[in-house]
Structure formats: C-alpha cells, structure tokens
Amino acid sequence: MNKNIFRNVALVTAVFMLALSTMLVVNYFQVRKATPLKTEVMETLKQLNESNGDNEALQAQIRQLDLLSRKAYFTQESHLKTGVYILVGMAAVLVLCLRYYYKESKKLPSKELDAIDEWMNKSKSRNYMTWGSIAAVAGALLFAFLSSPALRDTIEKAVEEGEELMADANAADDGDVAVLQSDTTAIAEADTTTVSEGEDDGLPIPKITSNAFRGNNASGVSGASGIATTWDLKSGTNILWKKPIPKHGYNSPVINGRNVFITGADASARELYCYDVYTGELKWTVKADNIPGSPSTMPKVNADTGLAGSTVATNGKQVCAIFATGDVIGVDMEGKRLWGKNIGLPDNHYGFASSLLMYGNELIIQYLNNSKAQLIALNATNGNQLWAKSTKDKIAWSSPVIGTVGGKAAIITTSNPAVAAYNPSNGTELWRVECLTGEVGASPVVNNGVVYAASEYSKCVAIDGATGEVKWEASDYLPECSSPAATKNLLFVATSYGMVCAYNTETGELVKEHDLSDAFYSSPVIVEGKVYLFSNSGKAYIFSAGDFSLLHSFNTGEKTFATPAFTDGMMVVRTDNSIYCVKKN
After folding, report:
1. Could you read off the pLDDT of 196-207 as tens digits, one per residue?
2. I need a surface site. Which of 17, 130, 394, 482 has the fewest CB within 10 A?
3. pTM: predicted TM-score of the whole model, two decimal places
C-alpha cells in the first residue's frame, strides 16, 4: 500500500482531532456559564404565574420548558461521552497511521521528496505533530472530564432556581385534581402458578410469587404485604441478607416459593443462579453450555444490556433462562438442567434484553432482530417449539406480558411500530395497532381490560384490549427503559431524564409529576397501595398509589437497574454487584 495514504489519513485525522478538542474545551466554558432556568423567559413566567395562579396554559408552558431543560441536560451528557470516544478513536488512528508511515523511514530518503513528505520527515516537525496531538487529546479529555460535574452543578442550580416555580404550578394543578383512590383488589390477578417446595427447616413456604419480570404475568403488581418502607444496607436495618453475585447481569430477580432466580454472564460462561429467600444461600448454579448451535465467540453487546439482560420466568415446575447468545435453558426446581437449545444468535446493535414469560407450560419469547422477527412458544418441559408467529416488527428490547382482554388471556407485545395482542394457545394475532416509533425498550402493562404502552420520543397510548381501539394518547413524559405500572385510576411512568408522573387512566390527563433529577431504568411495582421505584444511582422512592404523593426516599448506596421482586413480607433487590433481601426486623 502506498505510504502516502497513511500520511494523508494522519494529517486529516490530526486536523479533526484539533477541531474536536477545541469544541470540547469550548463546551466546558459554555457549561460553566449555563443556567437553563435562570433566563428572562423563566423569570417572566414566574412573575406571571404568581399573579395568575389559575392559568392552566401558563402552567403547562412552565412544565414543558422545565422538561426541555432536563432533556437537554441528559442529551448534553450523552454527546459529551460520544465526543470523548470519537477523540480517543481518532488518536488511535493517528498513532497507527504515523507508525506505518515511518515504518521504513529509518533515515531520510535520498530521493527527491515532495513538500509534504519533506515536512513530515523533519524531526522537529514530527515532534511538533506528535506532542501537539498528545497535548490536544489530553487537554480535551481533561476539560471533558471537568464538564461532566459542571453539567451536574448546572442542573442542580437549575432545579433549585425552578423548584419554587414548579411547586407553585403543581400546587395550582393539585387544587383542581380530585384525589384518586387505589384499587389494589381490582388490579391483582389470581396467582394460579405452582409454588415450588421449600426446605424442611420449619420456615413457611412463601405463597406470593413473582414469576417473571415485574411479577406474575409481568403485571407490575404484587399481592405481597408487610413490606418495609425504609432500610439501610450499611447498618443492616431491615436487611435480612446480602450476597455478592458471581457474574454480572441486568436481569431482575424472580421468586417462587423459597427460590430466588437470577442470571449472570461473561465471556467465559452463562449461568442461572438459585438463592434461598430466607438465608441468601446460593443453592445451585446451572450453566448454559454444550448447546448445539451456540456461537463459539460472544456477540458484541452494549454495556447497558450485557450478555444477561433478560429476566428468567418460571411456572413453579421449571425455570427458564435466555442469554444474548440466543441460548435458552430449562431447569427444574432442584437445579437439574432439563434441556438447552439455541434459537439463533440475536442480530441487533445493543444485545438481546427481552425477558421471558410463562403461560402454563408455554415459554414465551419475544425475538425481534434484524434477521428474524418472531414471537415464539416453547414447551417448558422439553424445549420443543409449540408455535412461532413471524412479524414485520423492528428490533425491540421490551418484553411480552399476559393480560385479560375481552374476557380472555392474551399475550401483549410492544415494538416499532406496533402494539399487538396474540392468542397464547397458537400465536394468532388478535389485533395490531401501529402507534409507536423509535427504539422501544419499555414493556406494556394491562389493567382493567386496557393496554398501556409508551416509548421515549414517541407517545403513550391507551388501547381497548377487546377491540384494539385507541382510547387516548399523551406525550408529556415518556420512558426509555422503565416499563409503566397501572392501577384502575392511575398510570405511573418513570423516565431516563429524571421525571416521574401519573396519568389519569380514563382520559390520559397528566395528574401529577415529580422532578427527581435522576435516571430510571428500573420499573415501578405496585404493592400494598404503594409504588416502589429505584433510580439508576440507587435511590429508593416509595409513592402512594392513590394520589402519587412521595412517601419515602433515601439512598441505598448501590446502583440499581433491575426491578425488585416481592413475596410474603420480603422484597429482593438486585444491584449492580449484589443481591439483597429487605424484611422488617
């Protein structure tokens, strides 16, 4: 290859590095001066709000401007990280090109050189380019590092400056909104799942199960009672046990009887773990190995999904797990592997993250990829395929749910572009509503015969489960990964940019909102008339399910992306590096 190609690439890369470095440095000084809410517009709105407390249009403008400010903050953070990655990549390209260019240049060549070659071969010029590039990269990285806390300082100042203004607007809204009462009896679905046997040590076998992501049927509701509303990992207050996790994963815990199931994976192994809910003892580990068709090398996955992003599902007789390799295993309650199969290496850019679902003896898999888009049902006992429904849907990272619509059970899925209902017995499509766009990560929820679905940069929709007719649409606040939960009266949504809210389930009206200045991937779960929710940073929030007022909030000290699972008087939480059980002391 002509060495001049490496020379030219090196020169172009150096120019772009200089430009990008300059932009990162300028970004730092811009962020330091930024005060998103301290503007003439906001000051004017504040004055108008004080004199027009009942102006709903004005209050809506205040909320919208505040929301845009929060979104801009998280977008800026994302762009900053991307800029750093690009700069580091350019630096690597520059080093490689220069190395190949000078590979055979032990001394100055005797032949006549063109002007650029002559400049490149002068030692001082080379040094200027090398050390100048290093200095530019180092300086840009330093200012990028400093910009991140500056961004946080900026948003904290903005929150403080806007807190009084938003409180006034919310207070005015609250005066016109009737307090909605929770109806946990109406939303709790009958638990017909088998409960596995417990240990013979005199301790009772918990009857409340949580057999899939977000509880039974992925409903976002638990029938558990006596759950603690405060706990402390450092002091051990209301902590029954805490254990390390052998391998990393983003999947959520699942509880059946005394068994707590999670998975973990890395480049060396994919594993299913079973813990004792009373003691935290790791009862058994089963590997997903020696599976025909399994890839010999691990797929490239995004850090936010990993190799074990999907939550397991169980029917009390078998527990099944799936990994980003497309490997699926079925295991009995004693830890004996019953079967293993590969359904195909998922072809997507983040990695496979859709969680499993059980319907009796059917294992339901939402398998949406570039190469294949299917809803698949396997026999949980032996892994044989029962049916498969091909779709035209694009990649999605949401999970299927079971809901009662039109008096019958149905599998509900969300993707780009559709929310769809299927007959769980044979996969026949019951209805399909094309209403979503973008990268769909939030799962649907079904309550009182209505299907609710939402996706960031798209919309929130309520669909009549019997007919597939859209009842209402909203777009005030939308989730990225966190899946909504619902009572008869309220739909709860948590966003990745710090806002959590409640919509009126009948009209789609925004009833209440909280600006928590934190990102949420974990999904809300309704228990005993309360909504439990964890932020990515590990802060626990507990709201009233009746009027969505904040009852408790505190830092747990450990990053939490998974959704908790509940059983008799206990809550099991998976953090970034451990699993623990909360129980009143």
Report:
1. 766 667 899 999
2. 130
3. 0.72
